[in-house]
Amino acid sequence: PLDFLLEAARRAPIVPVLIVEQSEVAADLARALVDGGLTIAEVTLRTPSGFAVIEAMKAAAPELIVGAGTVLTGSDVENSISAGADFLVSPGMSPRLLDALGERRKIMIPGIATATEAMCRYEEGFGLLKLFPASVVGGVGALKGFASPLPHMRFMPTGGVTEADAGNYLALPNVFAVGGSWIASSADIAAADWRGISTKATRALARA
Ligand code: 3PG
What we know:
The chain is an alpha/beta fold. It has one domain (3-207): TIM Barrel (Alpha-Beta Barrel), CATH 3.20.20.70. Helices cover 45% and strands 16% of the residues. The protein has 10 helices and 8 strands. The chain has helices at 3-11, 26-35, 50-60, 74-83, 95-101, 115-124, 139-147, 163-170, 186-190, 194-207; strands spanning 14-18, 40-44, 65-69, 87-90, 108-112, 128-131, 154-155, 178-180. Strands 7-6-5-4-3-2-1-8 form an 8-stranded parallel sheet. The longest helix has 14 residues, at 194-207. The two termini are 26 Å apart. 46% of the residues are buried. The mean pLDDT is 97. It binds 3-phosphoglyceric acid.
């Protein structure tokens, strides 16, 4: 079900994690990311405007795959889908969230930090997982360690990933994308630095 995401990640395997205060900038931001060569973005639900941002980004750049991040509750799931989110991301999983997801777990990338969590999510039907917070829970070494005993699982490390180490993650066969806020930081967005965001995206893709 997330094949469209894997296909987009093969073209551009870097997912900007966005914290956007004002939905008014969403269209410019979406176009800046596409101009920079990106195919996927994750809008966190850490601001009240998150759902409006998802909707506005999809309207401005229909070719951009836009996910909702920081999905914690059943209402986050409902509102994200209503806003047009193509996929969902969470920092972890809870029994209530799992229950609320139902069939929509097919478009969810849940966060995990250990082999046990990865095994639990896999049993529950999640195929793609987010290693979170990647730099703290073992980073490249942890993913190398997971590869042999957990060969069916594919990861999107996020949390503390930098432009300098994105390529090290992406060189691993069990990593399909990396996520991070450095491409379009809150400061970049507040400053409306669309050209700077495009440049960082292009540079990161070239290095990766
Ligand atoms: C987050 O939680 O904000 C994301 O995982 C991104 O983390 P980063 O700011 O360390 O890139």
